[in-house]
Design goal:
Chain A is an alpha/beta fold. Chain A has helices at 9-17, 23-41, 49-64, 106-113, 156-163, 180-186, 220-230, 274-289, 305-320, 339-350, 353-366, 372-392, 418-422, 429-434, 463-475, and strands at 44-47, 75-79, 117-122, 169-174, 189-192, 212-217, 260-264, 293-297, 398-402, 438-445, 451-457. Helices cover 35% and strands 4% of the residues of chain B. The radius of gyration of chain B is 23 Å and the shape is flat. Classes of the chains: A alpha/beta (486), B mainly alpha (95). At the A-B interface, helix 9, helix 10, helix 11, helix 12 and helix 13 of A face helix 1 and helix 2 of B.
């Protein structure tokens, strides 16, 4: 039954529907595969096989009562910054090492209603801050294509688990590229929805004007199915949009003729790995052959995207992470020395180096005397980055870039230089600054056998269009059928 | 606007982070390096540019302010590092 784990989510759903196997049988096959591969990879921070089998039995029972649906009985796993009631949720941090989620995030509630099976919680950079999953307080995850390489980050556990066949899909979160960059590193599909498309209720906040939850899957159709299930307005998240959710999976077959693609010249300059450039150019040529038009554009403020993001996002993080003070939940250290010492010592002991660095940077950007020069300047640059995209989208439907400048780098290669690590997100960050939907799609391998990803960025709430274009490309190529040898 | 150890210590105090002397030195060097790269923002004249304070395309949705069932008090207190009865327990702050 081990070949079952390599089915796409949609194929597994069809075969469950035809009663070729039960959800319990499917889940058991997945659990065996996790147990065989996990010692090499370390994708899971909390593994819940008993809960998964209980979910599977409940799904089989629902099906026997006549229920159907694309997620009924499908084993999924969840990035460990999203609350699953009764299950430990750590955000990859010592400060939440023993935190048990007291409620379900809205996305989890919706997936439960759809009958999903939850396998456990996936590794990530601490509080989703990082691009390699090396900032997890519980040790890194390894890239299934090459165990000496990082899986990307911050949703590295989510990407590696999907690529390794440990689940049919996972949820990740994307604040500056944390779904798309690991998706590219691990050769899977990752979608960051429009800001406001998916409720963040029950998501541990990093930077609230950026954070979005999104699907990570082996095929575009699977991402479409999962997005449809989790998207939509939620009274518990005032920033979630009332814009109607489209039937993404039904709308995948859209004609490519007449589609207008724009290539920002700033994304094809120095520092781009040659094989990445070649692979992306091949995809663009393929779209042209199908009748799409392609033109070059400029996003003149993209050279400011990294500093803009790191000023605004860290400012928000310094405020969001003020809640970890040892009072209501999480670690508490030094209470015998009084309240102020308790705060300072709890946070010193509980947070890792990158989280402290970002809190320091954000506090500085917001502090008296520096606010105008840093935080306010960042917000103004954010307006200019958004305007660049508004101009680009007046005569383009999709902006195309590489997802990351290089394929997956080696463990330890960038940990000594935080700025070098920040530059891993250079192509993904702009979509977060502008709130736009964007996805990463596998489009080949470099000569080391490491996956390459291409990024498609769409207009607000036009997830359907980028998914359809990605689906057309995927159907004509066999990248989605290639799996790592583990 | 140069960074120095006093500024780093003040930020750490504002952020309630107890840093070791080694960490103070490390963050001073790293923040200087990072902010050096960020100084490219000075190239852009942002006079008259509105700050981006609202990313929601159609604005925020409002809802009625009604009481709903959130997790129980017991659920919330279950994660407390220290508690007494139905309260979080903290060190004394007023002598």
């Amino acid at each position: 039954m081990s070949e079952l784990v390599w089915l796409s989510l949609a194929e597994a759903a069809e075969r469950l529907e035809r009663r070729e196997f039960s959800s319990v049988e499917l889940t058991e096959a997945v659990l065996r595969h996790i147990e065989a591969t996990e010692p090499k990879l370390h994708c899971f921070l909390t593994y819940t096989p008993e809960l998964a089998l209980a979910d599977a039995r409940a799904a089989d029972e629902r099906r026997s009562r006549g229920e159907t649906g694309p997620l009924l009985g499908i084993p999924l796993a969840i990035k460990d910054v999203i609350l699953v009631r009764g299950v430990r949720t750590t955000a990859g941090s010592k400060i939440l090492e023993n935190f048990i989620a007291p409620y379900d995030a809205t996305v989890i509630r919706r997936l439960r209603e759809a009958g999903a099976v939850f396998l456990g919680k996936l590794n990530c950079d601490e509080f989703a801050m990082g691009s390699s999953t090396e900032n997890s307080a519980f040790g890194p995850t390894r890239n299934p294509w090459n165990l000496d390489r990082v899986p990307g980050g911050s949703s590295g556990g989510s990407a590696a688990a999907v690529a390794a066949g440990q689940c049919f899909a996972s949820l990740g979160t994307d604040t500056g590229g944390s779904i798309r960059q690991p998706a590219a590193c691990c050769g899977i599909v990752g979608v960051k929805p429009t800001y406001g498309r998916v409720s963040r209720y029950g998501l541990i906040a990093y930077a609230s004007s950026f954070d979005q939850i999104g699907p990570m899957t082996r095929t575009v159709r699977d991402s479409a199915l999962l997005l449809e299930a989790i998207a939509g307005h939620d009274a518990h998240d005032a920033t979630s949009s009332a814009e109607p959710v489209r039937p993404y999976a039904w709308e995948l077959d859209q004609p490519l003729a007449g589609l207008r693609l724009a290539l920002p010249r700033e994304c094809f300059g120095e520092g781009l790995q040659n094989e990445v450039r070649t692979a992306v150019e091949r995809v663009v040529a393929w779209f042209q052959d199908q009748g799409a038009s392609v033109h070059e554009i400029s996003l003149p403020h993209s050279r400011y995207a990294i500093p803009t993001y790191y000023l605004v996002a860290t400012a928000e993080a310094s405020s969001n992470l003020a809640r970890y003070d040892g009072v209501r939940y999480g670690l508490r250290v030094g209470e015998e020395h009084g309240l102020l010492t308790m705060y300072g010592r709890t946070r010193a002991r509980g947070f890792g180096a990158e989280v402290k660095r970002r809190i320091m940077l954000g506090t500085y950007a917001l502090s008296a005397g520096y606010y105008d020069a840093y935080y306010l300047k960042g917000l103004k640059l954010r307006t200019l980055v958004r305007r660049d995209f508004e101009a680009a989208f007046t005569d383009a439907d999709i902006v195309v870039t590489p997802t990351a400048p290089t394929t997956a780098f080696r463990l330890g290669e960038r940990t000594a230089d935080p700025l070098q690590m920040y530059l891993s997100d250079i192509f993904t960050i702009s979509a977060n600054l502008a709130g736009l939907p964007a996805l990463s799609l596998p489009c080949g391998f470099d000569d080391q056998g490491l996956p390459i990803g291409i990024q498609l960025i769409g207009r607000p709430f036009e997830e359907d269009r980028i998914l359809a274009a990605a689906h057309a490309y995927e159907q004509a190529h066999d990248w989605a059928r290639q799996h790592p040898n583990l | 606007m140069a960074l120095d150890l006093d500024v780093v210590r003040n930020i750490a105090h504002l952020a309630r982070l107890e840093l070791t002397p080694e960490e103070e030195q490390l963050y001073l060097a790293q923040l200087e390096h990072i902010l050096g790269y960020f100084s490219r923002l000075d190239e852009v004249d942002t006079t008259g540019v509105e700050p981006a304070t609202d990313l929601c395309v159609k604005g925020t949705e409002f809802r009625d302010d009604v009481v709903t069932n959130s997790p129980s008090v017991e659920d919330w207190l279950a994660n407390a590092p220290s508690r007494r009865e139905r309260f979080f327990r903290v060190p004394k702050i007023i002598e």
